[in-house]
Amino acid sequence: MATSKTSAKRTTTITTTPTCGIPLIDSAVENGSGIAICDDQGEHSYQSLILQAQTVASVLLQGEQDLKERRVAFLIPSSFSYVVAQWGTWLAGGIAVPLCTMHPTPELEYVIDNAEVDIIITHPDFADRLQPIAEARGCRFLLINELSVGMGSEIDTELSAMPNRSLALPHINSNRRAMIVYTSGTTNRPKGVVTTHDNIAAQVSCLIESWGWTRDDSTLLVLPLHHVHGIVAVVCSALWIGATCEMMGQFDAEEVWRRFIKKNYTLFMAVPTIYVKLAKVWDSAAENKQQSMSEACRKMRLMISGSAALPVSVLEKWQGMVGHTFLERYGMTEIGMAISNPLHGERRPGYIGQPLPGVTVRLVDEEGNAITEESIPGEIQIKGANVFQEYWKKPDTTAENFKDGWFCSGDTAVLENGYYRILGRNSVDIIKSGGFKISALEIEEELRKHPAIEECSVVGIENEEWGEQVCAALILHSDQELKLHALKEWCKDRIAVYKIPKAVIYIDELPRNIMGKVTKKDVKKLF
Ligand code: MLC
Ligand code: AMP
Fold it and tell me: Are both 237-425 and 430-526 of the same fold?
């Protein structure tokens, strides 16, 4: 049982940094010898995590007193090392900029340049790609495996034997900037969403309360760690309360089922596409295997879905398969999680639920008036300590996205019998595929650089597995040919795989309105 590990959890406390000022780390410090993270290297205690992070912080500081919000980017697969780099950055007073392991060089360069990164930390697997980027920009370049004292589970004993280390780390005011996470939007290039330590604390603490996290919890992370679903909802929440987070480097449906059966997780979070992929494996399993798979899920206390609309058919399929009614919730990079179905009480299929504690939600009509009655659709606007501080170095865009202090989500919803239901997005140019937010404009801009493409229009086409799939209508230059597989190959070095069109059609003219603007609704009809 997941509970057996916990009895000794708070017996050892860290004395090297009684409080560092960062709410998440100060909360985690209390968990001493409890297991924080399991990964391919083994089990890692809270004590080990803090000491490793302190070591990284002191290397980053190089004798300086405080990084003073200088940006530290890191490209590290989901693992203990990732969190060590993140917390090390924070303890040194830096802003953590997680990079995406699926991004090709131009996209990594974009983030590093846009965030004006000073220091790059990487896993050795990515060193060949990142070292030239770092050198070209004069960034300090560090390999995570050379920074740490050791990454195995035996290190705990070694570290606890160490005398109190007097690392001169700064005290961090919690209203300082902590993290920049890049998200696509209605602009063609991704924006850096800046959150403070206080924002992260607010985003995490409302989930702890609402979803009943305790230190007896144990979860499996299958999501990437460059977005808030993985970073905040799974990892930060688990570490805040003293739970255990097991990390899989990459999602693999068969492996997830193996672990579900073998381990005793208490809760699991994923995007709807992952649940669809897991259900496919269940469907193809023999009956006795299906029984053990379902039994493994039944042992969990909670299964959560978010980041994209959960089709009612998927929710019902899982109800039948394993007896769980998924808890669906709604979030955004800018706000963490904001609206959720309840832990106890009715989880209404097709609805995202009610505002989380500390989060205020309103719906606003097209004229900008707050809607006070149920059943009238409007844009979701959010207020609360969970709301991000700014888009990095974009004061105008930041201002445009707030109205009277409310953050404008761009999502339309309706309130029905006390529960919010998402109706869609204001912008047709935002696509959600497998939980990733993708800008159609960004892809169009890239496709126009292809020598065979004269003009194009990118749309998201509804798809059972992916939610939406990126599809492109192409006008080719005369006498040119461009097959889908050739286009995919060409795209691979330029844009992340999840942005690459999964289908194309060839047309002579794009549908336009009388103003000459491409009508994407009509483009969609072409597929
Ligand atoms: C991978 N591919 C995708 C894709 N992910 N294509 C479209 N959309 C995606 N999301 C590509 C693969 O590279 C591969 O390309 C092909 O599609 C099939 O891959 P696969 O093996 O079937 O997919 P897999 O690699 O298993 O990845 C699927 C996935 C992944 C669902 C596990 O997409 C994922 O981790 N999604 C989670 C995203 C997330 O965390 N979002 C949270 C954002 S925060 P090829 O060329 O090899 O065929 C947020 C706020 C909130 O939204 O509310 O939480
Ligand atoms: P991101 O910018 O990647 O954080 O994506 C945030 C967007 O994901 C939101 O603006 C919504 O459009 C979408 N989203 C998140 N959760 C849900 C949900 N439960 N149902 C529908 N859409 C969701």
Answer: no
Distance 434 CA to ligand 1 centre (A): 5
Q: Phi first, then psi: what are they for 296, rounded to 5°?
A: -60, -40
- Residue range 11-173 forms a domain whose CATH class is alpha beta
For ligand 2, the distance from its centroid to the CA atom of residue 256, given in whole angstroms, is 24
| Per-domain residue ranges of the chain | 11-173, 237-425, 430-526
- In 3D, which of 408, 384, 402, 23 has the Cα closest to residue 200? 23
Rounded to two decimals, the pTM is 0.94
CA 347 to centroid of ligand 2, rounded, Å: 18
Print burial letters for 336-367: b (CB count within 10 Å at least 16), e (below 16). Answer: bbbbbbeeeeebbbebbbbbbebbebbbbeee
Neighbouring residues of 88: CB distance < 8 A, sequence distance ≥ 6: 52, 53, 54, 55, 56, 57, 59, 60, 147
Give ligand 2 pocket residues (Cβ under 6 A): 183, 227, 306-309, 328, 330-333, 352, 409, 411, 422, 425, 432, 437
Containing 510, the helix (H) or strand (E) segment is none
- Residue 253 burial (CB < 10 Å; 0-12/13-18/19+)? middle
pLDDT above 60: residue 155: no
| Residue pair 498/491 in contact by the 8 Å Cβ criterion | no
Summarize pLDDT for 339-396 with one digit per residue, the tens.
999 999 999 999 999 999 999 999 999 999 999 999 999 999 999 999 999 999 999 9
237-425 sits in which CATH class? alpha beta
Element (H, E) at 322: helix 312-322
Q: Which CATH superfamily is domain 430-526 in?
A: ANL, C-terminal domain (3.30.300.30)
